[in-house]
Amino acid sequence: MIQSNISLKDYNTFGLDITASSFCVVKSKTEIINLIQNEFSKYAKKLFLGGGSNILFLKDYGGLVIKNEIKGIEIERETDEYVYLKSYSGTQWNDLVLYCVDKNLGGIENLSLIPGTVGAAPMQNIGAYGVEIKDVFESLEAIDLTTGETIIFNNNDCQFGYRESIFKNQQKNKFFIYSVTFRLNKKPVLNLNYGDIQKKLIENGCVNPTIKDVSNAIIEIRNSKLPNPKEIGNAGSFFKNPEVSIEKYSELFLLFPSMPKYDLPNGNVKIPAAWLIEQCGFKGKKYGNTGNHAKQALVIVNYGNASGIEIYNHAILVQKEVEIKFGILLSAEVNFI
Length: 337
Ligand SMILES: Cc1cc2nc3c(=O)[nH]c(=O)nc-3n(C[C@H](O)[C@H](O)[C@H](O)COP(=O)(O)OP(=O)(O)OC[C@H]3O[C@@H](n4cnc5c(N)ncnc54)[C@H](O)[C@@H]3O)c2cc1C
What we know:
Layout lengths: L2 E5 L11 E8 L2 H10 L7 E4 L5 E2 L4 E8 L4 E6 L3 E7 L4 H10 L24 E2 L2 E2 L4 E8 L5 E5 L20 E11 L11 H7 L7 H15 L7 E5 L5 E2 L1 H10 L6 E2 L5 E2 L2 H7 L6 E2 L2 E3 L6 E4 L5 H19 L8 E2 L1
Parallel strand pairs: 2-5, 3-5, 4-20
Antiparallel strand pairs: 1-2, 6-7, 7-12, 8-9, 10-11, 10-12, 13-19, 14-16, 15-16, 17-18, 18-19
């Protein structure tokens, strides 16, 4: 059923009280195909909404918002080594992680507690603690928004990159992601080299850690560092970590000898955006109803009454200051709607 003038306050993690002129919930493939074939042509603008955790609404939405609640997890097939799990796109990402951890299926435990839905995960190739979904991604089923046909995309077809995929680029707004199949390892290989995972495992007394221990450690670290959107509105990292050439980094290093970097396989380096923003003095500073979080400068927050435009303008200010100081243009990870 399509409803009119619905507040999306509870459907976006910035907690912005904006209105969708039309809104509906889908719970099955039949419902989404019916919608595409019978209703879509009536609306100039359509937006699929998962958990609303990677979206900044700049104003009320004059179009149809489709909230995805097509849920479920099933075993598609298995080999001696792997289980291929199919998850429907409206499933909460962390429910899928917990399902795998519970069954000792390795591969996504480092992605514990990332908010949002399974269907949005391939959109930006979600990643954390040294793992991205492309590492375990097998294929996805997408529904063509013009024909209602189901198309399979394998790993290469998705053109995954750092917080990128074909669905944010050439195929933007052309498909609804219906289900995603992941390849999980029956004999988990732990990936503990990133951030404070090892330190936290030691603190927790885990000598021979299991994937459950790793998942718990990551949940603890994330809870201690990132603001909970239920308490302070935010969409996680606002900007991507910029990639620069080694020559550019070397020039900057002479001026800023404490500048951190991660070497990339292509010879370039990645600089933590949080560090750049912190150097510009934004960390923990409040600007009206918005600002950069005190524990993580990369997270722009809504202290309660910010509008989407206020948050956006603040992000532009941060972007400008970083560009002036370092000559690096930050690009947004969050989608502006
Ligand atoms: C506290 C916090 C921490 C975070 N940490 C991380 C992190 O560690 N790593 C990381 O990568 N991200 C992180 N994020 C960002 C966010 O959780 C992910 O990008 C997540 O995948 C978004 O899922 P969603 O369902 O909320 O997507 P939404 O915000 O609802 O949608 C995002 C985009 O995908 C589109 N979309 C959604 N579902 C579908 C579908 N089924 N078919 C087609 N298009 C669709 C939407 O139209 C929109 O353009 C964090 C966010 C928060 C709030």
